[in-house]
Automatic annotation (TrEMBL):
Residues 21-184 form the Ribosome recycling factor domain. This is Ribosome-recycling factor. Its main location: cytoplasm. Responsible for the release of ribosomes from messenger RNA at the termination of protein biosynthesis. May increase the efficiency of translation by recycling ribosomes from one round of translation to another. CDD domains: RRF. It holds the Pfam family RRF. InterPro entries: Ribosome_recyc_fac, Ribosome_recyc_fac_dom, RRF_sf. It comes from Noviherbaspirillum suwonense. It is found in: Cytoplasm. Belongs to the RRF family. Keywords: Cytoplasm, Protein biosynthesis.
Length: 186
């Protein structure tokens, strides 16, 4: 393992942390409807928990309503039940073969709860990035101990890893600021 390998794997892992944060932030509900909030809803499909997107078409009917059209007519009841029992606080209504899922406007109190949730997700991502930095620094120390690199090379590499960490923490802060603004916009 070389210094370049350590830097490369560190950057890849930090990128994965950012992608995970983006996915988590996409699940946080804002005042508008978007199909992504139903991504983690599981439906009982012939005894197997299956993602909703794999048994139905999910579309936006208007700014506050999501439309779910099952591919099989007999799945309507199971899908409606799964959405109702999810932790999203949504109340679907069936109209023939289409399930309409209105997203109620968020109260000020609920918006503040969402912001807290966003900040918690961000802190988790920052912790993950810092843990990756720690692992990278331990790898560099091991290279130094094995006499594969000099002390100067180790110090320079640690500085580079710190710059990477700072860059990813700044990106996390930027993502959180955008999501906060989105959540608080009425």
């Amino acid at each position: 393992m070389t210094v370049a390998d350590v830097k490369k794997t560190t950057e890849q892992k930090m990128n994965k942390s950012i992608e995970t944060l983006k996915a988590d932030l996409a699940k946080v509900r804002t005042g508008r409807a978007h199909a992504g909030i139903l991504d983690h809803v599981k439906v009982d499909y012939y005894g197997n928990p299956t993602q909703l997107s794999q048994v139905a078409n999910i579309t936006l009917i208007d700014a506050r309503t999501i439309g779910v059209q099952p591919w099989e007519k007999k799945m309507v009841g199971a899908i409606e039940k799964a959405i109702r029992e999810s932790d999203l606080g949504l109340n679907p209504a069936t109209q023939g073969e289409i399930i309409r899922v209105p997203t109620p406007p968020l109260t000020e109190e609920r918006r503040k709860e969402m912001v807290k949730l966003v900040k918690t997700e961000a802190e988790d991502a920052k912790i993950a990035v810092r843990n990756i930095r720690r692992d990278a620094n331990e790898g560099l120390k091991k290279l130094l101990k094995d006499k594969a690199i000099s002390e100067d090379d180790e110090r320079r590499a640690q500085d580079d890893v710190q710059k990477l960490t700072d860059r990813f923490v700044a990106e996390i802060d930027k993502l959180v600021a955008e999501k906060e603004k989105e959540v608080l916009t009425v």
